[in-house]
Amino acid sequence: MPRPLASVRARAALAATLVVSFALVVTGIAVIAVLRHNLTDRAALESEVTARTVAGAQAALTGDFTALDLPDDRDRLVQVVDSGGRVLAAGDALHGRAALTNFAPAPAPTGTPSPTPTRSAVPTATSTGDDDDDSGDDHGGGRGSGRGSGRGGGESDDTRTEDTSTDDDATGAPARGKVSTDVERETLAVRFGDRSHDYGFAAVQGTTYDGRTYTVYAGTSLADEQATLDQVTRTMLAALPFLLLVVAGVTWLVTRRALRPVEGIRAEMAAITGSGDLTRRVPVPRSRDEVGRLARTTNQTLAALEQSVERQHRFVADASHELRSPIASLRTQIEVADQHPGLLDTGDLHHDVVRLQHLAADLLLLARLDAGEQPGHALLDLTALVREEVARRAPTDRVAPEVVADDEEVPQVLGSRSQLARVLGNLLDNAQRHTATAITVTLARAGDDVVLTVADDGHGIAPADRPRVFERFVRLDEARSRDDGGAGLGLAIARDVVRNHGGDLTVAESPSGGAAFLVTLPRAAQSTGAAHA
């Protein structure tokens, strides 16, 4: 049973939806916070304008607070408090309320007069509080208090009038007949009945002409601002699912369109696997993106696989053909021996068995090389190896090879002694087969490489045939003889072994006009410890 998120499209759509939802939520919170801050600042600015208007009114500066024109609705609240905490004047909405000193007055029980603060202080930015309804008749008393304060203030503030005739920098009070440039703002919850309403308050101080200090508290309702915030929040929350649905759908469609070429590649690969036809190729999209590169790489892989399979098929066919001749010859001789024991030619029988043994060994070595067998990593003195191999073959060779090497100049190499000896043996066998009078084996250093050259003075190899001589089971026309030409695996094995050692085997023309086979091997690092295999 398939899993819900088993496809790339589903996972991509889910991931995109989660990322976008997180981004939208964070953005929405940031927008709401910025909007709330701006709306609150606007309400506070309106409150400050109202407070300064009231504090700078002529009636306030003359001390006639009963003549102030104050708002009478709940959207704008105004209260004037003297330095002793007494309410001098208040709008209808704050009728009967305690003074807003410190923006945090202690609520008074119903029917009980509000306590009078013992000090006057400008509200701080960290103070909060609610004002409860007071059933006392302070509205009339408030305005009466203003009048009483005017009268009482003149009598009780005689000495203070003399002390505050100039700006009082120590207390921060403004000069006579002036309004302070400082303002304190705070958001308060004011209760009306059973519900609380948020207001943005601003407090501004002023000083009458006769030296009395008062504070005007003005508040602007935040109901409209809160309604705006609620509407924006509801709109964003209502739009969020739709936006996420759109994001998920678009991501699903885009991902499906982007993965359509991949599905085509998969389907074609499945068809190739089922049919076994390696000549087929996957479709390559027109886009030059990752999918296009994947298709091209897949086709390159299929081409390499096709060549490898063809090479293996050709190898098996050639090996079968080469094995058929000695096996058929052996069978014929054995059958003749059964019928006529005196006619058995043991020399030919031995030759065919040896040839069959060599061919089986060559096929086994090629199979090991094709399987990726790595050579040894022993330090080898290539000059000593060449001299030993030439000396070992001397009794049976038709032409004695000449070795030209400087033992001190030729560095050591890393590899398998038996495999490199096999390379040299195959090259010498080829030279013995085609040379006229001389074979030269040369060892020299070429930069960081060691070059082993086996040259003869035979007819040489035509430039057009030089790449072919390293192919398996390939024998040139003059070497077609089964007795003299071998199976055509010697040079192919030599090149594969040399390349497996990190080098290369090439063929050129020798100075005497024959063929010269050059074996190039990297020299061993100086730090490698000495060992021999």
Q: How would you characterize this protein structure?
A:
It is a single chain. β4 (184-192) and β5 form a beta hairpin. The protein is built from 11 helices and 13 strands. A 6-stranded mixed sheet has the order 2-1-6-5-4-3. It has a 5-stranded mixed sheet with strand order 8-10-11-13-12. α7 packs parallel to α11. It has helices spanning 8-55, 58-62, 138-156, 158-163, 223-275, 290-339, 346-370, 382-393, 417-434, 482-485, 490-500; strands spanning 76-82, 87-90, 130-131, 184-192, 195-207, 213-221, 378-380, 402-404, 413-415, 439-446, 449-456, 504-509, 515-522. The chain starts with 7 loop residues before the first helix and ends in an 11-residue tail after the last strand. With 533 residues, it is of the alpha+beta class.
Q: Any idea what the shape is?
A: rod-shaped
Mean pLDDT: 78
Work out the helix count: 11
Widest sheet, order of strands: 2-1-6-5-4-3
Helix proportion of residues, in percent?
Answer: 40-55%
N- to C-terminal separation? 58 Å
Number of strands: 13
SS class: alpha+beta
Report the radius of gyration as a whole number of Å: 54 Å
Q: What characterizes the major β-sheet? A: 6 strands, mixed
Order of helices and strands: HHEEEHHEEEHHHEHEEHEEHHEE
Tell me the strand percentage band.
15-25%
Regions with little confidence, pLDDT below 50 for 5+ residues: 104-170, 478-483, 527-533
